[in-house]
Amino acid sequence: MDAKRVLDLVLGIPIAVALSPLLAVVAGAVLVTSGRPVFLVQTRVGADERSFAVLKFRTMRRDAPTVAKSDLEPVADLYTPLGPFLRRWSLDELPQLVNVLRGEMSLVGPRPALPTQDRLLALRRKHRVTELKPGLTGLAQIEGRESLTTATKVRFEAHYRQHRSLAYDWCIILRTARAIFSRRGAF
Questions:
Q1: 18: Cβ–Cβ under 8 A, 6 or more apart, which residues?
Q2: What's CA 86's distance to the chain center, in Å?
Q3: Each residue of 137-159: b (16+ CB within 10 Å) or e?
Q4: Is the separation of the CB atoms in 46 and 112 below 8 Å?
Q5: Segment 97-123, tens digit of pLDDT
Q6: N or C: which end of the chain has fewer CB within 10 A?
Q7: What is the pLDDT of residue 74?
Q8: Average pLDDT, integer, range 126-153
Q9: Which residues touch 169 (CB under 8 Å, ≥6 apart)?
Q10: Helix (H, G, I), strand (E, B), or coil: what is residue 36?
Q11: Cβ atoms within 10 A of the Cβ of 58, count?
């Protein structure tokens, strides 16, 4: 087991346990306001372009198309009642701790792409970002998230790939909380 996987488990397990009451509250709130399913299970592209099922709290109506948010117009009409709040505070992403614990994702890495995001995947291939395990957070998330262009996101991801280390992961994890609470680049 490599050091990055050890870090994912050493941090991921206590984070999942500590956040379990919040996860239960959010799941209950989604169920009450939007019905079932509470979770969205979606195919994403993982390390070496292998597909896996990512887990998220559902923030869009059941009939919303499965495309990147940037490809939806008008997106506001597709949200569930709690959708904007969950996305703004990144609470919809918390179930992905399960993906981290299963080894499909890491705490830090590029965000998992939809198989339909051809331009993003092509740029990631060009810069060898597809070699990396997707992350719950990453350099692009703390540098602007959805406010960044696809090319800029991939530049940040390529920078991370070239300079990745456990110390860099720690730095990104610590900066993630600040990015969430400042809502920088939030949806």
A1: none
A2: 13
A3: bbbbbbbbbeebebeebbbbbbb
A4: yes
A5: 999 999 999 999 999 999 999 999 999
A6: N
A7: 62
A8: 93
A9: 4, 7, 107, 108
A10: coil
A11: 23
Q: How far is residue 4's CA from residue 53's CA, in Å, rounded to a whole number?
A: 21
- Per residue in 154-180, pLDDT (tens digit) is 999 999 999 999 999 999 999 987 777
Is residue 26 within 8 A of residue 91, CB to CB? The reply is: yes
The 8-class DSSP code of residue 113 comes to B
Half-sphere exposure of 162 (CA within 13 A, CB side): 8
| pLDDT, greater one: 70 or 132 | 132
Helix 150-163 and helix 166-182, axial crossing angle in degrees, nearest 10: 150
Mean pLDDT of 142-152: 88
pLDDT at 67 over 70: no
Residue 39: in which H helix or E strand, if any?
A: strand 39-45
- Sequence ranges of the domains in the chain: 3-181
In which residue are the tokens 């991921």 written? 12
Q: What is the pLDDT of residue 187?
A: 36
Q: Which of these, 1, 7, 39, 2, lies nearest to 136 by C-alpha position? A: 7
* pLDDT, position 185: 45
The alpha carbon dihedral of 177, 178, 179, 183 has a sign of: positive
Question: CA torsion, points 116, 67, 124, 154, in degrees to nearest 10?
Answer: 160
Q: How far apart are CA 53 and CA 180, in angstroms?
A: 24
Amino acid symbol at 41:
V
